[in-house]
Amino acid sequence: MLKPRHYPRILRVLLTVAAVSYGMMLLFPPRLQAQQIEPHRANYSEVEPTLFMGGRVSEPPPGTVAVLNLCESEDA
Question: What is the pTM of this model?
């Protein structure tokens, strides 16, 4: 069992780890949080009329006739 004289040292270490973790979370927010903040932002761009290129979206842009999946995830 730890002796009472070690408590202040352990408390300082835990507070330091918590402060560093919190700072890292503020500097490098999780990607999920960024997606929740900007869900309306388009994840694709129009290369030519009716030809779009971009990332994963829940629905293709309006007027899309075909979709080519280049990632390794399953089609929805």
Answer: 0.37
Calculate ∠ Cα 44-47-53, nearest 5°: 35
Q: Where are the domains of the chain?
A: 4-38, 42-76
Q: What pLDDT digit, counting tens, does each position of 31-50 carry?
A: 654 455 455 567 788 888 87
Query: What type of residue sits at position 13?
Result: V
Q: Cα separation of 50 and 44, whole Å?
A: 12
Three-class DSSP labels, the chain: CCCHHHHHHHHHHHHHHHHHHHHHHHHCCCHHHHHHHCCCCCCEEEEECCEEEECCCCCCCCCCCCCCCCCCCCCC
Please write the tens of the pLDDT for every residue from 2-36. 677 777 888 999 999 999 999 888 887 666 544 55
